[in-house]
Fold:
Amino acid sequence: MEKIVNPMKINTREIKSFFYSQYFSDGLRMSLGILLPSIILIQFNHFDLGLTMSLGALCICSIDNPGPVFHKRNAMAVGLVCLFVVAVITSFARLNVFTLGLEITLLCFLFSMFTVYGNRAASVGTSALLVMIFMMDKALKPSEVLGFSGIITAGGLWYLLFSILFLGVRPFRTAQQTLGENIADIAAFLRIKADFYLPEKDIDENYRKLVSQQIKVSQHQDAVREILFKSRIMVKESTSAGRILVLTFVDLVDMFEQIMATHYEYAQIREKFGATGILNEIADTLQGMADEMDNIAFMVLSNTRSTRKRFFNTGLEQLKARIDEIGLNDRGASNLALKKVLINLRDLNQRITSIYNYYNSKSSDTLLENTTDMEYSKFVTHQDYAPHVFFDNLSFDSATFKHAIRVALVCLIGFIAGKSIALGHHSYWILLTIIVILKPGFSLSKQRNYQRLTGTIAGGVIGILFLLFIPEKSVQFVFLIVLMLGTYSFLRLNYVVSVIFMTPYVLILFNLLGVGRLVNERIIDTLIGSGIAFAASYLIFPSWEFEKVQHNLRQVIYANAKYLLKIAESVSGKEIETVEYKLARKDVFVKSANLSAAFERMTSEPKSKQKNIKEVHKFVVLNHILSSYIATIASGIAAKRIHKTSAENLKLLKRSIAMLNDCNKKLDGKVVDLNSVKTLTLNTGEPAPLSADDLLLNEQLGFINKISTDISRVTEHIIGGDA
Structure:
């Protein structure tokens, strides 16, 4: 009987999930942090003072990105210093149009170079550029400069303290939210995997969806790692609260590997087993497990306790009986792949059960006794902030250097345009648009340009209608708060929606301040800034993905070769530490997601710049298949710690690694050393019959060998096309 789903129930949960999410929490924190100085000081007739402090808070809040609290604190502290210095410099530089133009050029270059130190440092640079833009048209006497700059900095300091206090009240909340969102991502990934077993689903289209979803999973996993493994309070927590989050995430990563491992040659499986109906049962089981994952995600997001909606033990036993029946009918050979799928399904079911148990009050008390410490610090990247990193990138060989020059030149052009052709006194919107839109890569700039224009025009229409039909100031102020909350809540979730909220929020704000209706000025300045930024991203040191794709190829080939090497070492008799195995696995997942993201960006670039696009797409799909097959083998071997296999299987492994090494040699990449793999003696006598496990392993390794050969051919085509 077909399962009937209540759409209202799903929509209600999605709405609730949004309000429990880090996006809404961040929006609430940012909105309150910016608004409170103005709201409080207006009660004491110091609205101008409050507004200036809110301006400083607005600049510093751009640094308040997800991550460990002490990273935020340190970054915002550096941002405060930049805030004060830039505010002072801009206040004096604006006294002469030429010195202001020079300052804009130099500071735009300097702060755009902060990208070499990672995303958080880049946000510090953005914060400094924001205060420069806001101070450009602020008429101050020389004697007022230090005082006004101090007030702006005080507003930034207020936001820093407020944010740390806000996060300190519930220290685990950010981790819960990020983890919950990651679980929901994996549930979506699992649903796409389930579709591979349905004959009516297009396999190529499903791969496209899978690769796109893998990017989201990887990004959220990196965010969770940053928060959990770089926060001592989580890893060293003496109570079960922090430990539960860590254990859940560790199980979640293992579970993701299991989901990756439910991978076979789907066209062949459909042809062989499609008529039996078993594939629909497997898909239904995977969909049911995805439902349970969504339930867990909501449970973690909402910080509540929930019971399972569906148990799979009986269904898995029935599935086993069906698989055994198929094996008997086909003389016991062809159902080996189905048995492996069943093992993976059982493992998924066990991990779902474990996560539910973590949040059960009776079992959570024993977590500390039953778990061992892991070297979590190895699983996160550590940014090098040494000065030489900055100076080493002062070269045209550096993409960051070229981006910084592009930003500096474009902002100078935008400044000149603002002084020459802008409609009103808020021409800094041209520069603001350029800073927001201009990204290191063409595709990202194009995407942000489209989002900014669409959001500004739609938001401008909403703003006009609002101001026309709702003249009451008190009602406007209430809507201002709602719009501001929407702006910051959707800033990272959906930028178009964020800008749609932002435009009427800005228009209402200026209307309340008595500046007048500026919708025409804002839209036209945005169009000017967008046009300049788009032209620059195409003409001034353009950055195309095909120029960088070989770097991604090298990294992902090396990561897969290392992953295979750990398996080869294990099956040759060497004991592999869990940490080594998991680090190799993490590297494959991260590098694969990076390659997939680069390919997606490549597809949005001009057709003339999509060099080798078909070959790169083939490589992305082949890499996913390869990684999945390696995960399939690794998940079985890891459970036994040391696994012995035949010398023939080891030979197949070494041949695949050697083939991947050859690919990387052609790409001038690193290769793995096979000397660590112990040699097994080939059986020169009568070969012993292979066990069922060895038979399946031999089949899988043979397929890995075939995929490695295909990857080698595609790599040669890519290299030939770039020549």
Remarks:
- Residues 1-10, 682-686 have pLDDT under 50 and may be disordered.
- Residues 7-169 form one domain.
- The chain has four domains: 7-169, 173-379, 393-542, 545-682+689-722.
